Amino acid sequence: MTRDDPLTVADVARLAQARLPKELWDYVAGGSGAETTLAANRAALDEVAVLPRVLAGVAAPDPGTRLLGSASSLPLAVAPMAYQRLLHPDGELATAEAAEAAGVPFVVSTLASVTVEEVVKTGATTWFQLYWLRAPGVVEDLVARAEDAGCEALVVTVDVPVMGRRLRDVRNSFVLPDDVVAAHLTGGGDGTASRAHAREAGTSAIAAHTAAAFAPGLGWSDLEWLRDRTSLPLVLKGILDPRDAVRAAGCGVDAVVVSNHGGRQLDGAAPSIAAVPSVVAALAGQAAVYLDSGIRTGTDILRALASGADGVLVGRPVLYGLAADGAPGAGRVLSLLAEEFRDAMTLAGCADVAAVRELSTVRTVRA
Question: Which positions in this protein are listed as binding FMN (predicted)?
Fold first, then answer.
């Protein structure tokens, strides 16, 4: 990939789709059910219209900020995404390298195909994403590994009691190849991990694996236990209802991620951007608010912050870059988003991220 090739994330996505087998493209790009929430994420972002300020004297905006206390060159972190070695042999190491070069945090998944210890060695500011697992002691072990490796935050995903019914994967009888594993879950000895590699017609092997591995009964008491267990900043990912955001803050959570899991869990859930203003209002500064699901341009980042978010998590676009060209491809995506965000800041009359969050928005309905 050269600088003259892709000019937008959409361009990178087309490159990725051309290079991936259909079942892999479907796994990355697809959503759950009829994919109504997947589509709604994009439509709702497009309905957020920003009221730019003028005569602001802004020539060179500063997009830098702090996320959970760490400096970041953008109000952006790379979202947790599983099994990245499906898309490139370097997997999470390549995307972490791209995040480090871009100066933004990288969130490594419980289901990463590379261990957290290896990811931290890239030098990226690393957060660890935690799924709650059935196996006794494994959650505590993962927390300890994240702390010992030098992770700077824990991100607990709370919207996956079970995996949403992702029909593209079911129709493709999707299965992991033998050389791609959940690197943090290989020592269980109970055969659970092998389910991700067992093809059965009309089923998703990844869904079968998560059904066996994940604890569906995660509750507030578990979160309280975790808050007492670790001194790391704690983030809850998968919040849409402001009542849950307020309860999370009461449990000592440092940030919430307003997210519908990129349209991959409850089909029919609200678009993430639509939930941001009410969550921000309910929290009233008790915890930071980040947006996940649907960010594809620098203008989308501007929209998210103008709607009240403190930052965004970006997922699929980085995977598109990884599939297209490894670390350089993922880096190209992040540089495109940075360039677009700086341009949007200038055009909106914003010298810094604080000014972006002071912008007003209106909702438009597109025919």
Answer: 80-82, 109, 129, 157, 237, 259, 292-296, 315-316
